[in-house]
């Protein structure tokens, strides 16, 4: 996974990749809820 010139490698193989996906899902949900509360 690359963000600009920074490369992120999932830790722990498949489990780490799954955790990264879960974390990004939770983060997007939390951000959406926060934005809805603010606006």
UniProtKB/TrEMBL annotation:
<keyword id="KW-0472">Membrane</keyword>
<keyword id="KW-1133">Transmembrane helix</keyword>
<feature type="transmembrane region" description="Helical">
    <location>
        <begin position="12"/>
        <end position="38"/>
    </location>
</feature>
<keyword id="KW-0812">Transmembrane</keyword>
<protein>
    <submittedName>
        <fullName>Uncharacterized protein</fullName>
    </submittedName>
</protein>
